[in-house]
Design brief:
Layout: E1 9-13, H1 17-29, E2 34-38, H2 41-50, E3 55-60, H3 69-79, E4 82-88, H4 93-105, E5 109-114, H5 120-136, H6 150-158, E6 162-171, E7 177-188, E8 192-194, H7 200-205, H8 209-229, E9 235-239, H9 242-245, H10 250-261, E10 268-273, H11 281-293, E11 297-303, H12 309-315, E12 320-323, H13 325-328, H14 335-350, E13 354-357, H15 363-371, E14 376-378, H16 391-414
Parallel strand pairs: 1-2, 1-3, 3-4, 4-5, 7-9, 9-10, 10-11, 11-12, 12-13, 13-14
Antiparallel strand pairs: 6-7, 6-14, 7-8
């Protein structure tokens, strides 16, 4: 479904008048009604201070006279003066990446980078990403006014209000839908759909993560069975919390759950973040070994973003390595990110692990991962998280997209 950008409020910070004019024209051409302009960092801060409405996205150059873009972004990030930042600069990728990390360390959302001249399709992709992430965080849903208590969450879990949505994963070699990831959504009886950004912290604070995860697993297993009855063997992955890994009874409990439904353990993947196994290591390793022995698939999630990555790979029997979206994002234009992605794929290949790339946002990302021989793709370019009953429509649309990708690749090969 095509998204509209008329409600977005933008600020373009660019000292070069012609390039600033081009950027503004691109934004308005995409349907954005509110676009402010500034010629350097101080001018931009003045515009933000004078604005009656908050700025959603700031598109900022780096090399500017007066207050440069790096100093401006530091001010904006520290004071949370805008919801998200896009860096538009011709500077070297290493410098841009450092600026992005600086902003992220201040808690600022960095949507990505734009090369000059600005590409409208890239801008459109970033805007769609922003709106999707705002929706996932519950922005504008009315849920921000909801005060969440422990009793409310207990009721939500017990009554089945917290349900899985599924994000598809496809083989890069042929585009086939083979798996998906289950992600929690709260279907509140009065407030409607509440997204994870609005309740996951409370779930963790109140010590209810195990109960919620078990409920998501149960619902996911039922959906796997439904797909199986339709002739589809769709592996589904679920994130496992650290406290669950410390439960030595977890393997038996999961086996009982899948046997009751009548599916094989190989259809359920358990995603383990690197930091999840750092506490109570002995119990975690025992649980993971027994899960592997019983036939469940283990995936190391967010690889390279936690601690002791190589040690985790060495001592845990993983079958899958997920390349974090922070590396996949902009790997097409950033040689360092590309090198990291390529190294992860090569490492996984030598360890005989399947690779899953998270965060694909464009056809260019797809082509790069195809070139690097990654196994599986997951991201908004392939499909967003959705209820299971929407997969028929999604699959039909995806087949058209993949057909177009294949045609473009064939044309390039013939050239």
């Amino acid at each position: 479904m095509t998204q509209t950008f008329d409600a977005l409020r933008l600020l373009v910070v660019e000292d070069h008048q012609f390039q600033r004019m081009v950027a503004v024209k691109v934004m308005t051409g995409l349907g954005v009604a509110s676009v402010q302009e500034a010629e350097d960092g101080q001018d931009a801060l003045d515009k933000i201070a004078a604005s009656t409405d908050p700025i959603d996205i700031t598109i900022c150059d780096l090399d500017m006279p007066g207050m440069d873009g790096i100093e401006f972004i530091r001010h904006v990030a520290e004071k949370k003066l805008t919801s998200a930042i896009v860096v538009a600069s011709a500077m070297e990728p290493e410098l841009i990446r450092t600026v992005e990390d600086m902003a992220a360390e201040h808690g600022m959302k960095v949507l990505g980078t734009l090369e000059k001249p600005i590409n409208p399709e890239k801008v459109k992709t970033l805007f769609e990403q922003f709106l999707s992430e705002q929706a996932a965080a519950g922005s504008g849903s009315g849920s921000s006014e909801l005060v969440i208590t422990k009793d409310m969450l207990i009721t939500a879990i017990q009554d089945g209000q917290i349900i899985p949505w599924f994000q598809p994963k496809v083989l890069i070699s042929n585009g086939q839908w083979v798996s998906c990831e289950a992600l929690a959504r709260w279907q509140h009886p009065e407030k409607g759909m509440i997204y994870p950004g609005q309740f996951i912290n409370e779930v963790e604070t109140f010590g209810l993560m195990d109960e919620m995860t078990e409920s998501i697993i149960s619902r996911s297993i039922e959906q796997i069975k439904q797909w199986q009855s339709e002739g589809r063997l769709i592996n589904t992955s679920v994130n496992i919390s650290p406290s669950m890994l410390g439960n030595i009874q977890l393997p038996e409990k999961l086996m009982q759950m899948i046997k009751a439904v009548g599916i094989g353990p190989e259809l359920l993947t358990l995603e383990i973040t690197e930091s999840a196994v750092m506490e109570n290591v002995a119990h975690c390793l025992s649980t993971l070994a027994r899960l592997k022995m019983k036939g469940f698939t283990l995936s190391i999630d967010d690889f390279g973003t936690g601690y002791s990555s190589m040690q985790q790979l060495n001592r845990i029997p993983f079958s899958e390595l997920k390349i974090d979206q922070s590396f996949v994002k902009d790997a097409v234009s950033d040689p360092t990110r590309r090198a990291i992605v390529e190294a992860n794929i090569e490492l996984a290949r030598k360890l005989k692990l399947k690779t899953v790339a998270e965060g694909l946002e464009s056809a260019a990302d797809w082509q790069l991962l195809n070139e690097l021989q990654c196994d599986v793709a997951q991201g908004y370019f392939v499909g967003k998280p959705m209820p299971a009953d929407q997969f028929s429509d999604w699959e039909a649309e995806w087949k058209q997209t993949y057909s177009s990708l294949s045609s473009n690749t064939s044309d390039q090969d013939e050239t």
